[in-house]
Amino acid sequence: MAGVSRIAIVAGHGGSNRGTRVLGRDESNWVLDYARLLHRRCEAMWRDPLFQLTRDGDYDLGLDGTAKKAADFGAQLAIVLHVNAYSTSALHGGAAFALDGDACGRSCGNEVMHSYPWELAPMRELAWYVPSDAHDWRKAVANVLRPYARRGISATLIELFYATHPYDVAVAACEGVIDRTQLAVMAGLATVLWPARTASVVA
Question: Which domains does the chain have, with CATH numbers?
Fold first, then answer.
């Protein structure tokens, strides 16, 4: 697997598509701030590859429009950022997903989960492989990832934590925890920038 050289950072939702509520804010704005910070940190750490935010304001490009913007940038990998929600508080922790057959997306997701803060320990230590034609609970995930696959872009969807789980919310509000989720995402990126060797990320 060759290392990627252009990465799109995707803040989920936007505009009238607000997402769930995260620490008293709309998910669309919360993940936008998260994506902006991640973008700055990646650019500070690596001169090459190139990174681009698919949105840098409160607007919604839609799933296809977002993937098109990533393609126009020449992205080989998209990191799609969301905060999860569920009808009950039964589920918790981070999660990463890639479409079935997307080795780059899964490699990145595996390392993100492996490096994730223990306070938000994922329910699964590896990324989930999702069939593109999934009809169960993974259908919504496949809908997010398919537009990238159609354009030949690998993609990793990262659900940072559950906004519907009281423990996750309390932990996410603690100083330093969200910062360490970003380091985990950067560790995932490092595996696909230099897949031939194990890379470490230092704050």
Answer: 6-193 (3.40.630.40)
